[in-house]
Amino acid sequence: MHVLSGSRLRSWGCIVTDLTNTGGSTSTYEARSRARLGLPFVLIEPLFATLDAAIIVAAGALGGIGYQHALGGSLEDVGFYAGLGLVASLAHVLVAHFLGLYRHNHLLDHERDGGRVLAGWCIAALVIPVVLFLFKSGDEVSRGSVLCFVSLAATGLVCGRWLAKRSLRAALLTGTIRGRRVAVVGTPAELAQFGRADLLTRFGLQEIERVTLPSVDVLLSASEAKQRGEALMARIRHAAAEEIVLALPWSAPQTVTALLGHLRAIPLPVRLLPDCAVSTVLRRQTSMPQRLYMVEVQPAPLSALDRLSKRLLDIVVATTSLLILILPLAISAIAIKLESKGPVIFRQRRHGFNGKPFVIYKLRSMTVQEDGGAVVQATKQDPRVTRVGRVLRQTSIDELPQLINVLQGHMSIVGPRPHALAHDYEYGRMISNYAFRHHVKPGITGWAQVNGYRGGTPQLELMEQRIELDLWYIDNWSLMLDIYIMFRTAFEVIRSRNAY
How far lies 323's CA from each of 11, 195, 267, 360, 445, in Å? Predict the structure, then answer.
């Protein structure tokens, strides 16, 4: 982690005090939020559009058939009028979208928008005679049925919008609506303009943690700044946030840069909220959602679609591999048990995605089971390695139980190899970008392993080269790259290069 300049260290003066004094109320709020099943904020607009469409389709069926029935007609044309309502509903949703009727600022304000709803419906209703003309059905539909349909739909849309907006405001008050879970970090002046309700209604964000960075006049040393930065990251990780948002003045880019220097180690997207000056202007405009004015200053390592595709590949490969390799695993377990005393499965704590610890599984290949502050890497002709263990390590069969870690979601098939906690702490102090390895899930195999950096790293230069390859993999990830590494791994296992 880089050292901050003197002018940038002022904003870290009281972080540790904040971490110990302001966590209680936030933790209580977070516990209530987790215990309550909520509706995602992003579904509000689709739900309002669906409600409008349902009202119009129902009005088409009820208006047309009701009018015909009142005149003594039959009920055989229900499908026709419902279909006419469906076409009109699609037109209305498009018109309402362009008029901004589904934007959050319109849905959450207390002003009546019945006039705008009626205007949108009148424009959309023009599609009805066009459809009847195109399908040559004008002679089969009475004007009274169409007028009844249009009137019922207009009434239903206005009343439905009024009831839905009341229900939405009530849901916001009770916490039923939930946004994207975020940790908010900023200065007191900027944080003052953003309450929890403001963040939810304006930006669709659910605040689960708030960290205040008060400005002080005391200069901090580089070690003190690093210590406070680590405390900040620990608090954000504990909050289990999906995103980090910064409330900082846009006129002080050096403050944003200094803070990002610490937050880069966390694999979460970081966005900058509009500051006081920009928010003053934004509150007067309604043409665009305000969340679009948030500035992304740090993207996530992988997008949601990337993570989903990688996870599906992991599940398919891990499940298939376990079914195919169940016999070699069973034979290996029996051989381990017959040769030496001790458990068949060796367990050790490792750091996973975002630095969170998990327990990794391996077939025991040594007479020791180190998992403490000092873990010695295996070397050639290591006396701790058993005879069976030597074969298992050369063929990488000892790594196969990690397929269970993959199915548990702690690991991926391809990714940076996880190291023992003691090694993470040691190399983390010596290699500046070491923590960036935790931006993705650790893997059973990786880009460094198929490029010759498999096994121990007795020299620091070897570890630095491995980290460089791991970071290249993260920056250039693709599904095809994962598949390519899997095939390369098979050849590396046959070569047994650096495996001992």
Answer: 55, 52, 33, 20, 19
> Strand runs (DSSP E) across 113-269, as ranges?
177-178, 180-186, 205-212, 243-247
pLDDT tens digits, residue range 397-419? 888 999 999 999 999 999 999 88
Please measure the distance between the N-terminal and C-terminal CA atoms of the chain and give it in whole angstroms: 33
pLDDT value for 215: 59
Neighbouring residues of 341: CB distance < 8 A, sequence distance ≥ 6: none
pLDDT given for residue 181 in this prediction = 85
Side-chain-side CA neighbours of 100 within 13 Å: the count stands at 11
pLDDT for residue 401: 93
Residue whose C-alpha is closest to residue 67's, from 127, 138, 150: 150
**Which tens digits make up the pLDDT trace of 439-479?**
899 999 999 888 887 766 667 888 888 889 999 999 899 99
Nearest to 208 by CA among 171, 170, 262, 245: 245
- In angstroms, rounded to a whole number, what is the distance separating the alpha carbons of residues 464 and 375? 19
3-state secondary structure of 293: helix
Q: What is the pLDDT of residue 259?
A: 80
* Structure tokens that stand for 37 in this block: 């099943």
| Separation CA 262–CA 220 (nearest Å) | 15
Other Cβ atoms within 10 Å of 130 Cβ, number: 11
DSSP-assigned letters across all residues of 415-470: SPPP-BHHHHHHHHHH-TTGGGGGGS--EEE-HHHHTT--S---SHHHHHHHHHHH
Q: 204 near 41, Cβ under 8 Å?
A: yes
The confidence score (pLDDT) of residue 11 equals 40
In the prediction, which pLDDT does 19 show?
39
Name, in order, each residue with C-beta under 8 angstroms of 10's C-beta and a sequence gap of 6 or more.
215, 216, 217, 218, 219, 220
* Nearest to 440, CA basis, from 480, 482, 399: 482
Q: Helices 143-174 and 196-203, interaxial angle, to 10°?
A: 150
* Separation of alpha carbons 44 and 332, rounded Å: 54
pLDDT at 14 (0 to 100) = 38
The runs of H, that is alpha helices, within 36-126 are 44-70, 78-98, 104-108, 114-125
Element (H, E) at 345: strand 345-351
Run of H or E including 445 = strand 443-445
Beta carbons of 305 and 283 less than 8 angstroms apart: no
* 284 three-state secondary structure: coil
pTM: 0.64
Whole-number pLDDT of residue 305: 87
Classify each residue of 441-454 as buried b or exposed e, where b means 16 or more C-beta atoms within 10 Å of its C-beta. bbbbbbbbbbbebb
Q: How far apart are CA 480 and CA 416, in angstroms?
A: 17
Q: For the chain, which ranges sit under pLDDT 50? A: 1-36, 216-220
Specify the pairing of strand 180-186 against strand 270-272.
unpaired
